[in-house]
């Protein structure tokens, strides 16, 4: 490998046969290039879709109530079901061990927010402190609602980034008084949400305050939970599904709802959606890998073809070299050394070009479902090595055969 | 230098077996300049290929400089070719992407000589054939006669025991042929053993001994008075 004489010989051969070298290199470089770009965009799609799913905690279970569609135990259909603080308290006590975050929500209908001359209609909800994590919100300024606010039924509120921009423009909202339907609340925090603007046009107040001030009594609109994750995703999913069906039957029993009534209690288990999402991501990734591997195979076939042609083209030269005293091994190593050198250089060129493209284009790409395409460097390096190895293997057979040709046969080739 | 006893060679072509050499007995002393003649199909090229270890005989013995040449594997054959033999071909067989100098240096490369020594030695041989000024030209920039002279320099480069020339003037016009023959005669004068396969009478008469082959047998083997090529140029 470090035989200087052989390197000189090979570099000379390469420099005197530019077209041949270029063609071999091109098929390798383009194979790697396409593969890296494909894998990069596969990753980009995964990132993009993931961020769409990050609006809420990925394992959130939401419970909401509706209207009965079936009569049960003498009660007529069409009854409006409303969950209460009691339901919530019973559930969080019963599942205390399993729950990670929990909150009930009281929604204030037609919430109009007023600050100075600015006003707007936003979705305003009374929640517990854990709700921040159920909604996957990050604080930009100030703090979220805490249990102290809740106990004191304090008139404080947390607003989304968009609400802040609408009402306050460039002013600092913290400590300002905003009216919700005419009642003064003090802003204590501003949050952002990966789900974007739609999720940031909301405001939150303590649940207790909302129920008292806006006449909710002990009614709650919906419940949100997350469970502590288990060791495996499968176990977490199983527990989550079991938990969903247990609360469903508990609530149906308590509110006298027919067990087969599907409209009175609704449960939305994000984790099941998450599973579908991961399946989708898995499929996308598999697809890109399959396409990528096919590309590599095409590259390998291309390299093999070119190697065959090269050996064919050099048959006479090989005959001459053998007549001058070249040993079979030196012929094989000459061809392999050259092919490995060329494919390696070309492979890394393709790798560097494609990664540079991803680096440049990636962050500037602003599409909903493609975000920050990138590729695992180790994967890319491995594919380069696979291609180089495949090129060497592909070159070995014709090289070996060429080395075995009788020099007299090779010399007769015209 | 070369001793051949009862050499047989057949080729199988499909179902037929073609008996090309039917028992050749023949020896060459050091410093001889021998031409092997015969019509096409007489087996002269086959004989030369066997002498050149490019092909193997079916039967018979072949001794080169006291070394029995038999049961060669590819590796040893390559070593022997490099050490004992220099080839000159009708179609020159230069490597077309290498300069004249690098072509002459090839056998030395396979001897494991360092690049600088190789270049010096190759240059010396190019000078000998009168092409020092053409050292860095590619084969396609050279005339036929020049190419053959590069090939002769290459054949000499490894300082072989025997030069084997297969129709060395076959692709050249008469004048150039005589120039090449003059060079070959000069090399022979210095003591190198040379075998030439040819079907041209005038070329054959420029050697010192003519061996005539017909249908795989030597029918005639006579020493002749050498005609100096220079007298024709």
Automatic annotation (TrEMBL), chain A:
Belongs to the ABC-4 integral membrane protein family. This is Putative ABC transport system permease protein. GO terms for molecular function: transmembrane transporter activity. The chain crosses the membrane at residues 21-42, 287-311, 331-357, 377-397. It is a multi-pass membrane protein. Its main location: membrane. The lineage of its organism: Bacteria, Pseudomonadati, Bacteroidota, Flavobacteriia, Flavobacteriales. Keywords: Cell membrane, Membrane, Transmembrane, Transmembrane helix. One of its GO terms (cellular component) is plasma membrane. It comes from the Bacteria. Residues 21-237 form the MacB-like periplasmic core domain. It comes from Leeuwenhoekiella marinoflava.
TrEMBL record, chain B:
GO terms for cellular component: membrane protein complex. Residues 2-233 form the ABC transporter domain. InterPro entries: AAA+_ATPase, ABC_transporter-like_ATP-bd, ABC_transporter-like_CS, MacB-like_ATP-bd, P-loop_NTPase. Pfam families: ABC_tran (PF00005). Gene3D superfamilies: P-loop containing nucleotide triphosphate hydrolases. One of its GO terms (molecular function) is ATP hydrolysis activity. CDD domains: ABC_MJ0796_LolCDE_FtsE. It comes from the Bacteria. The keyword Kinase does not apply. The keyword Zinc-finger does not apply. Keywords: ATP-binding, Nucleotide-binding, Translocase, Transport. Belongs to the ABC transporter superfamily. Macrolide exporter (TC 3.A.1.122) family. PANTHER family: CELL DIVISION ATP-BINDING PROTEIN FTSE (PTHR42798:SF6), LIPOPROTEIN-RELEASING SYSTEM ATP-BINDING PROTEIN LOLD (PTHR42798). This is Putative ABC transport system ATP-binding protein. It comes from Leeuwenhoekiella marinoflava. The lineage of its organism: Bacteria, Pseudomonadati, Bacteroidota, Flavobacteriia, Flavobacteriales.
